[in-house]
Structure formats: C-alpha cells, structure tokens
Amino acid sequence: MIVETWDEYLKLVSDHPLREWAFRGQRDAAWRLWPTISRELGNRGVKNQFWPAQEHRIIRIFQRKALHFLDKVPEVVDTPQWMALIQHHGGPTRLLDFTWSPYVAAFFALESSVSDSAVWAVNAQKLGAYAYGPKFPARSRPPSPQEVLRMVGMRGRDAVAIGEPYFKNRRVVAQSGTFACPSDITRPVDEILSKKKGVVAKLVLRAKLRRRALRELYRMNITYATLFPDLDGLGRSLHFELENHWQFDPTEG
C-alpha cells in the first residue's frame, strides 16, 4: 500500500483493521523482514541447516561472558530475556523489533531515510501475543528459541509469535516495544506471514511526507533521546537536530 501523505498514514493506523496491530519501521521500502541472525549467517556463508545450532551456541557464549557487565544476571533458562539483551546491545538474534506505537514505527522508518521507506504491520492478536517467562523448567542448558516457541504452543516452520520477555528493559518500555520471533530463520518473516490471510501489511511511505512527519513526531517528543533513554540515544538524537531549527528551515533556499 502506497502512503502519499502524513494525514493518510495517521488515518490508516488509527482505523480498523490496523488499529490494534504491531508495527515496524524500515528506512528502505525495498528491505525484507530478515532477522539479524539470518542476515549474518547468510552473509558468512553458513549453510541453512546449521543456522539454529549456531544461534543457540552464541546465546550460550553471551550468557557465560556477560555477567561481568550486568547488575542483575537473568536466569540461565530464560532464553527470551537473554535474546532481548543480545538484541539490545547490538548482537544478532532472530528477534525483529516491533512496537505497539505506529508513531514510533514511523520515526524509525523516516529519521534516516533518503527515499521511500516502509512501516510493516502485523496482526498480533491473530498470531498470538505473549510475555515470555520469567521461568522455564530447570534443565542442563538454556532452551533453544524453537523450544521456547513450542512451550507457548507455537509449532511448525511457519510459526511466528509476537511478544517480549516478562521483564522489560528501559528501551523496550520507552519504545512500547515488542518482538516478532519466527520459528524458521532461513526465510524472511514477511514471506512466512504472506501464507496467512490478514496478518501482514506493508505501508510504503513516500519520501515527500518525511519533513512534515518528523516535525510532528518531534513535537510529540518522539526522538532518539526519548526512545533510547541513555547517553547513546541523546547522541543519536543530534543527527535530526542538524536539519531541525526553530528559526528557519535549513533545507529550504
């Protein structure tokens, strides 16, 4: 679906059926919904059949080394919490960041875009929305992401769950964040969801609406400084300040 104006976008995300969906902004409209773990393994030439085992391995590596940097260490078996931590700190996981706020999604789509961007929407109620954990049965090793999905009743290669760890970090709270968690990491999530009727939509935001949209989002206090409530977020927020000025518009004239 092509969205030509900011007002058109606001109407689409405020009305049925998208009003209760979860959203993800991407700065390039051509991008698929690939998890970072899939992109990394694909770029490194790892054969598809080894992807789940490699993913499980790096979760265990992170767990064994992260305690030096954490004030509170999650339980070893709480795989969703560990994946969220890895995602939070820039590591590759199968989690795809979504948000319950269409305004936050629009910000992520538009802030660094230079052409048409996109907001993806998924029907979380139809897919199943979960708060994972905080505890899983004791075992000798942490459950794999596929085992976590099976524990909440999500089965089969086409299973995609929407949810987040029971205990949310500050960024997830600030962004009204949630995650899409696919069972199969060898296919993009949009391809998997396309098999199900009425669960995924793609809104292509024309580049011409960017200026007005970001000004409105700025007035709503949606910036990197508020979405990433730490010094990194404040630093990232300065990029938009370079083009946003109260006395004049530096992009004109």
Taken as a percent bin, the fraction of beta residues is 15-25%
> Which H/E pattern describes the elements?
EHEHHHEHEHEHEHEHEHHH
Q: What are the segments in which pLDDT stays under 50 over at least 5 consecutive residues? A: none
* Share of helix, binned: 25-40%
Going by helix content, strand content and strand pairing, the class is alpha/beta
With strands numbered from the N-terminus, the spatial order across the biggest sheet is 1-8-4-2
DSSP strand count: 8
Integer-rounded radius of gyration: 19 Å
Shape: globular
State the distance separating the first and last CA atoms: 33 Å
Mean pLDDT: 91
Major sheet: size, sense and barrel closure? 4 strands, mixed
Which quaternary structure do these chains form? single chain
Query: How many discrete structural domains?
Result: 2
Number of helices: 12
Description:
It contains 12 helices and 8 strands. The protein is an alpha/beta fold. The chain folds into 2 domains: 2-222, no CATH class; 223-253, no CATH class. A 4-stranded mixed sheet has the order 1-8-4-2. Strands 3-7-6-5 form a 4-stranded mixed sheet. The radius of gyration is 19 Å and the shape is globular. The model has no long low-confidence stretch (mean pLDDT 91).
Briefly summarize what is shown.
By secondary structure, the chain is an alpha/beta fold. Helices cover about 40% and strands about 15% of the residues.
